[in-house]
Amino acid sequence: MAHSEGFQKLAADAKTRIKEISVDGLSALLEFRLKKEKKAE
Which of 22, 26, 2, 3 is nearest to 14 (CA)? Predict the structure, then answer.
């Protein structure tokens, strides 16, 4: 049982990390696009 509990914690940590990475990636992408649009004006 201890093994599966550890695995569940790892899976939860991974999901949290993936969410954080995707949020960081989206904000970086938005900033990049905004900078490109400002240059185009």
Answer: 22
